Structure formats: structure tokens, C-alpha cells
Amino acid sequence: MTDKYREQAVVRSQEQIATGIFSMWLEAGEIARSARPGQFISVYCNDSGRLLPRPISICETDPGQGMLRIVYRVAGKGTEEFSRAQAGEAFDILGPLGNGFPTERCPQGRKAFLIGGGIGIPPMVQLAKSLAGEVQLVVGYRDELFLTEELSARGTLYIATEDGSAGTKGNVLDCIRENQLSADVIYACGPMPMLRAVKAYAQEQGIECWISLEERMACGIGACLACVCQSKEVDEHSQVRNKRICKEGPVFRAEDVEI
């Protein structure tokens, strides 16, 4: 687990990259230098009426420049506030939070599927930059594409769209089967139905699989127990089968959690 920092992060740039989806670069040196692929930050609103921070996954980092990038969907008043921010404005952020993807599971000589769906696609950018093995990015969209340039620069990109407007018509598993792809390890982030299907596929194929669960979080540090998921393990202290997504996750080995 990396150290956590609370920083006043300055917005360096922001742009809308798809309908309701924004890309923001923040200057946050300590967090940018410490973050691992799959971790997230909690962003605090400047509106005092919104007390709880919004957890947003880290898309990529530039440790040398002390910068990190978040790509997020406007889903409520908090993210709507973020979307109006201009260069030079600042937000309090806390991070890096959670456990990220185990990049050591894909050393040179191994092949990985990086499977992203919807707003679960952004974390795959930094993950692809961090793996030594062969990267195959399989990403699913409803219709409108985003981040394809960044993804294709870091591996072989395969696209699935629900409406068939680009790539395979269907879902990410349809794309894998259509292109007759194979891998030694799977890393996945996206909506729960996709993760359930990926977990089942990995079990069927005997492939090691790591999934990032995205749930509504409040504190982001494991104190409030608002984001628990069911685990196959029984906690030795509480005697319950719960894991906190913000603390023990958001990344879990697929076989260790019930989804």
C-alpha cells in the first residue's frame, strides 16, 4: 500500500472528450509520483454544501512533471462542478487510494488482456504503460469512442461497440472470440455485468484474472463500510465475508470475490 497524501491540486487543462466525459490534468506531485495503475483519488468539491469527496480512478500519471490525469463521466452535481473547472483553479484531493493492479503478473514473455468497459476504460491507459509483457487492449463502448489514440499507442487495440459503429458489434468477449485472441492474465474494469462475464470466461479458460470493482464510495479510506463486497474469505476479526472496495480493493483477484 502506498502512502496517502492530501494536496491542493491545480487544474492544468481540461477538455470534453465525449458526451458527458471529461479529461482533466492536475498538478499533484506527491500523488503523481506515488500512484500505481488501478488506484484512485478522492476529489473534494469547492462547494461547501457537498461534503463527501468523489472517488475517481487515475487514468495516467506523469511523475516527472508531477501531473496526473483523470477521465470521468458527469454523473451528479459534484462531477458537474468539476466539469466547469478552468486551468488555474484548484481542488483538494486525497490519494493515491486503494490497491491497484499487480503489474508483476505480466512480465516480459506473458500476454495480457486489458479489458475496459465504459468509464472503466481510463485506468487501462496507465496500466498499459506499466506492463512489461505483451498488451492486448479490448475495450467496449456503447457507441461513442474515447481514449483510443492513447490506448493504441501502448498496445494492440480491439474495439467492441453495442451498435456496431466501430470494431466488433457486441461486447468485449464477442471481440475476443471474433479475433481469436488468447492471454495469460486478464486485467478488467467496467460495469458489473461485464465483470461477471469476464470472470466466468477466465474460469472457463483457466486464465488468471484481476478485476477492479467500481462502487459508490464515501470516505475512500475504509472507515465507513459503505462500499463492501462479498468475499470468499471470512474476516478473522469480524467473522463476516466482507471486503471494503476502497481499502482492500478496488482491484481483487476475480476468484476471491463474489460478484
What can you tell me about this protein's structure?
The protein contains 6 helices and 16 strands. It has helices at 29-34, 77-83, 123-130, 148-152, 172-178, 192-205, and strands spanning 5-18, 21-27, 40-43, 54-62, 67-73, 90-97, 111-117, 134-141, 156-161, 168-169, 185-189, 208-212, 228-231, 242-244, 251-253, 257-258. The chain folds into 2 domains: 5-97, Translation factors (Elongation Factor Tu (Ef-tu), domain 3, Beta Barrel); 103-214, Rossmann fold (3-Layer(aba) Sandwich). 18% of the residues lie in helices and 36% in strands. It is an alpha/beta fold and 259 residues long. The protein has a 7-stranded mixed β-sheet with strand order 10-9-8-7-11-12-15, with helices on both faces. A 6-stranded antiparallel β-barrel has the order 1-2-5-4-3-6.
SSE blueprint:
Elements: E1 5-18, E2 21-27, H1 29-34, E3 40-43, E4 54-62, E5 67-73, H2 77-83, E6 90-97, E7 111-117, H3 123-130, E8 134-141, H4 148-152, E9 156-161, E10 168-169, H5 172-178, E11 185-189, H6 192-205, E12 208-212, E13 228-231, E14 242-244, E15 251-253, E16 257-258
Parallel strand pairs: 7-8, 7-11, 8-9, 9-10, 11-12
Antiparallel strand pairs: 1-2, 1-6, 2-5, 3-4, 3-6, 4-5, 12-15, 13-14, 13-16
General shape: globular
Distance between the termini: 24 Å
The name of the CATH superfamily of the largest domain reads: Nucleotide-binding domain of ferredoxin-NADP reductase (FNR) module
The number of domains: 2
State the major sheet. 7 strands, mixed
CATH architecture of the largest domain: 3-Layer(aba) Sandwich
Strand content: 35-45%
CATH topology of the largest domain: the name is Rossmann fold
List the strand order in the largest sheet. 10-9-8-7-11-12-15
The DSSP helix count reads: 6
Question: What structural class do you assign from the helix and strand content?
Answer: alpha/beta
